[in-house]
Amino acid sequence: MNLKRADVFIHDTAVVAPDAVIGAGTKIWHYVHVREHAKIGTHCVLGKDVYIDHYVAIGNGVKIQNGVSVYQGVTLEDEVFVGPNAVFTNDLLPRSQHTTWRVVETVVERGASIGANATIVCGVRLGAHCMVGAGAVVVKNVPPHALVVGNPAKVAGYVCSCGHHLHRDYPIVNSALYQFVCESCKRAYELPALEALPQETVRAGVDGIRFVHHNFDEDTLRAVAGVLQSGWVAGCGGESARFEKKLAELSRCEYAVAMNSCTSALFASLSALEIGKEDEVIVADFSFPASGMSVLQVGATPRFAEVRLDTYNLELEKLATLVTNRTKAVMVVHTFGQMAPMRELSALCKKHGLLLIEDAACAIGASHDGIVCGELSDLACYSFHGRKIITTGEGGAVVTNNRELYQKLRAISSLGVDASDKFRAGGPLRYGFQQLGYNFRLSDLNCAIGLQQLHHLPALLERRREFAGNYRHALRDLPELILPYVDPKADHAYQAFVCRLSHEKLRDHLMAELKKKNIHTTIGTYAQHREPLFASRDICPNSGQLYETTITLPFHSFLGPAQIEYVAEQVMIAISV
Ligand SMILES: Cc1ncc(COP(=O)(O)O)c(C=O)c1O
User: Which one, 89, 346, 439, 445, has least CB within 10 Å?
Assistant: First the structure.
């Protein structure tokens, strides 16, 4: 049915639903179809064959050229231009037989222009006054004023709101921005350098907000290529020696042994400490079960210890209640990168004659009261798995100040080999195999990546701390969401940003809602005593509560303030529904 109004022009061939809202001065041309509940602002022009779906919202002064379909979920703000035959999609997983189809939103901000035949894949935001080149396929957010071209669309420059190119002029003092000036109208803008855009601006596009991510730079690619070209790719080459030296240095330790995972490192550590059958090891309960599993692997019994609700770390006051005459060691976990109070813990272990092992899988670069991982314990184990602060793909290491332990670790991780001269007797190189060992070596390819990662570690930590601050600020007024507490003496490394909800249902609801927005999260971590493998009778109610109520929000060194703001916005929306 057609609507006839004096203040709008609707061509006789157009079909406009009676409940569609059309603003004054708008012109709707041949064969346009405007569906129910669509809302079109004032002074818009809709060319021939345009299709406006249910509930689409279009601002004022928008111009849509011939043959464009604007599907449900798309919002076009004021003064947007859409060129002929541009396509919007609204389904991320298009299949002809769809049972769980849902609309994914796309927003085109004020003054943006979309060229002819461009395709805008749903779930993106096109920033104000950006320009999408003809035929481009946009799969990620486009920053304001950016010009994007190609398939997939990439930033090729900046454009003024008048449409002409912007040239970079000079850096703005005390900021990461530059002044950009229009080559035509001379208008000036303060914008990030183009090189800085991809990391900072990608929001929930097709890939969604990644929960974890690493960027490897050219130097890393060159370092890996160098190892490949050298032909020396196995473990124990020059790269692994250099990697171990740097790891030992940053841990204020004499020795480091790189291994193929933190789980291997924990197992090798317990073996080197001669912990086995009949022994008990007290393990912080709230952790990834690799911690407790390593104790089982050497035949000993893990005794799971309660943690604090605020820092998620060991509750020191309750630790002594677990000590028995079988207890050999304590395995502390520096949860999500916050180091436990090592001075107090080391004193406690000394008092009870216990060895101290640090599961520092998540805590490289962290400190507590000036103490770093490895400094006050018998040994500390790092992980370089892809979810960690720095990564070698898979990987781990043990650091220690104990020479004897170091020698044992080297042997255990390398098939029990004794490489000393005593087996050569002046003849050709041959090893002695005196003890049971394993192949836990980390290849030189991985170590080359690790060395580059260590080089970037200070900058990565700085970014993580800054991003944690951004999350804290953006989420500060949500009573249902308890932000991670940082002990004033701790320098948190933020392997993850883990918050606590007031109850389990809300946590699960939040995770499900964020998933719908393509924002990836996980639970915090595990209450190990509850896992059937351990058949534990230990009681750790705080840990159980954390297992049920914590959520790990997307967090990595390349996230950027814009994405954090977006995630926080979506968290607030999800909690309020
Ligand atoms: C606390 C903790 N310990 C140990 C591990 C095991 O590390 P990897 O994957 O390097 O074996 C992890 C891995 O997530 C962990 O979080």
Answer: 439
Q: What are phi and psi of 107, to 5 degrees?
A: -125, 130
For the chain, give every residue range classified as CATH 3.90.1150.10: 457-576
- Torsion of Cα atoms, 538 then 541 then 542 then 548, to 10°: 110
Q: Is 288 in the pocket of ligand 1 (CB under 6 A)?
A: yes
pTM of the model: 0.69
Closest ligand 1 atom, residue 385 Cα: 10
* 340 alpha carbon – ligand 1 mean position (Å): 17
From the CA atom positions of the chain, what is the Rg in Å? 29
The beta strands (E) that lie in 308-437 are given as 327-333, 355-359, 367-368, 371-372, 379-383, 396-400, 417-418, 432-433
Pick the CATH number of 219-423 from 3.30.70.1130, 3.40.640.10, 4.10.520.10, 3.40.50.620: 3.40.640.10
How much distance in Å is there from the Cα of 266 to the middle of ligand 1? 9
Between CA 248 and CA 137 the distance in angstroms is 48
- Per-residue pLDDT of 323-353, as tens digits, reads 999 999 999 999 999 999 999 999 999 999 9
Pick from 306, 373, 303, 304: nearest CA to 338: 373
- 543 Cβ inside 6 Å of ligand 1: no
How far does the centroid of ligand 1 lie from the alpha carbon of residue 433, in Å? Answer: 29
Token readout for 28 is 């709707």
Q: Is the CB of 290 under 6 A from ligand 1?
A: yes
Q: Is the pLDDT of residue 377 over 90?
A: yes
| CATH number given to 457-576 | 3.90.1150.10
